[in-house]
């Protein structure tokens, strides 16, 4: 098979850096260009120092549409929509957007919501993918099997994310001296990922009309998400585990385990690790992912693999960081 020509738009941020790190070693992908308006002309490794020895390429200012079978949009939220609207009609390649611009039904504009564990068939038949948010990915993977069986009730979620989830630009709540040895709650019951989570739950369980109560937290670690999710459920623990294992048996990156999940199980991988336990009438699900990989760039490459008819795991068998 001829290599897939890749263009990356907005190449200076964390998600773009992870995307480049995956794609330079992907056996069936070739990076044609990496665009960045702010870093044009500079060596890619001057921004992404971890790529030294892996890639020799400079950022470019302009997009060469003729050299891209697929474009990854790694720009800030709100910028992808205007970029897509300005694209030439002659471009016939595929688009994978990592922002939140096209995730909701009202904004989709032909984009398919790219959660493979829910929408793989739709992804296979699409040219435009809205990559899910990081919190949304971890939380939905905790809930999909229940929603598919119509078993959702009011949902309660506490989830903690690493500092890279806020992006590369420093802010009052991301710089080291504030984040280190600290923890905080933010956007309680109002996080932007609630919209996409709710739409997926209704997609699978159309009658679902209960609250999804989500309290996000900032952790004092750089990458990873742990979501603790619980709700009322009449299933026994044994039946619940069987339900989850059956749902995910054809999805190579989601692993159902009896072990208590922790973030280090998944950092630097595209895996999601899910544990299901029963406490009286409550079912408790713990889900962990790497926010930059399964929550962003790794899932984007997973979607690329599906779009081009490749094995989902192609180029994504990354090793976890144990210590």
Automatic annotation (TrEMBL):
Catalytic activity: N-acetyl-L-glutamate 5-semialdehyde + phosphate + NADP(+) = N-acetyl-L-glutamyl 5-phosphate + NADPH + H(+)
GO MF term set: N-acetyl-gamma-glutamyl-phosphate reductase activity
Active site: 134
InterPro entries (alphabetical): AGPR, AGPR_AS, AGPR_dimerisation_dom, AGPR_type-1, NAD(P)-bd_dom_sf, Semialdehyde_DH_NAD-bd
CDD domains documented for this protein: AGPR_1_C, AGPR_1_N
Main location: cytoplasm
Domain Semialdehyde dehydrogenase NAD-binding: 5-126
Keyword GTP-binding: no
Enzyme class: oxidoreductase
Localization per Swiss-Prot or TrEMBL: Cytoplasm
Domain of life: Bacteria
E.C. numbers: 1.2.1.38
Parts forming coiled coils: none
Involved pathway(s): Amino-acid biosynthesis; L-arginine biosynthesis; N(2)-acetyl-L-ornithine from L-glutamate: step 3/4
Key words of the record: Amino-acid biosynthesis, Arginine biosynthesis, Cytoplasm, NADP, Oxidoreductase
Keyword Oxidoreductase: yes
Family, per entry: Belongs to the NAGSA dehydrogenase family. Type 1 subfamily.
PANTHER family per UniProt: N-ACETYL-GAMMA-GLUTAMYL-PHOSPHATE REDUCTASE, CHLOROPLASTIC-RELATED, N-ACETYL-GAMMA-GLUTAMYL-PHOSPHATE REDUCTASE, CHLOROPLASTIC-RELATED-RELATED
Annotated function: Catalyzes the NADPH-dependent reduction of N-acetyl-5-glutamyl phosphate to yield N-acetyl-L-glutamate 5-semialdehyde.
Protein name: N-acetyl-gamma-glutamyl-phosphate reductase
Species in which this protein is naturally found: Carboxylicivirga linearis
């Amino acid at each position: 098979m001829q290599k897939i020509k890749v263009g990356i738009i907005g190449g200076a941020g964390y998600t773009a850096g992870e995307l480049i790190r995956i794609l330079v070693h992907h056996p069936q992908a070739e990076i044609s260009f990496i665009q960045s308006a702010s870093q044009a002309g500079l060596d890619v490794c001057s921004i992404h120092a971890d790529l030294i020895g892996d890639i020799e390429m400079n950022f470019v200012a302009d997009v060469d549409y003729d050299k891209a079978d697929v474009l990854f949009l790694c720009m800030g939220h709100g910028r992808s929509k205007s970029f897509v609207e300005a694209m030439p009609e002659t471009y016939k390649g595929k688009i994978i957007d990592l922002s939140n611009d096209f995730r909701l039904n009202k904004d989709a504009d032909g984009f398919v919501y790219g959660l493979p564990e829910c929408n793989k068939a739709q992804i296979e038949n699409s040219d435009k993918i809205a990559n899910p948010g990081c919190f949304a990915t971890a939380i939905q993977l905790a809930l999909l099997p229940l929603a598919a069986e119509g078993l959702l009730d009011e949902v309660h979620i506490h989830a903690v994310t690493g500092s890279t989830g806020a992006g590369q630009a420093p802010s009052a709540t991301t710089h080291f001296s504030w984040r280190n040895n600290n923890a905080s709650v933010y956007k309680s019951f109002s996080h932007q990922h609630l919209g996409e989570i709710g739409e997926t739950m209704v997609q699978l369980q159309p009658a679902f009309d209960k609250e999804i109560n989500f309290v996000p937290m900032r952790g004092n670690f750089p990458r990873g998400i742990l979501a603790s999710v619980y709700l009322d459920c009449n299933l026994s623990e044994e039946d619940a585990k069987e339900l989850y294992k059956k749902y995910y048996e054809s999805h190579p990156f989601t692993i159902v385990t009896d072990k208590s999940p922790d973030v280090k199980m998944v950092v630097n991988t595209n895996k999601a690790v899910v544990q299901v336990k029963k406490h009286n009438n409550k079912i408790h699900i713990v889900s962990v992912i790497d926010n930059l990989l399964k929550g962003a760039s790794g899932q984007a490459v997973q979607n690329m693999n599906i779009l081009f008819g490749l094995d989902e795991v192609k180029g994504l068998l990354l090793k976890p960081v144990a210590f």
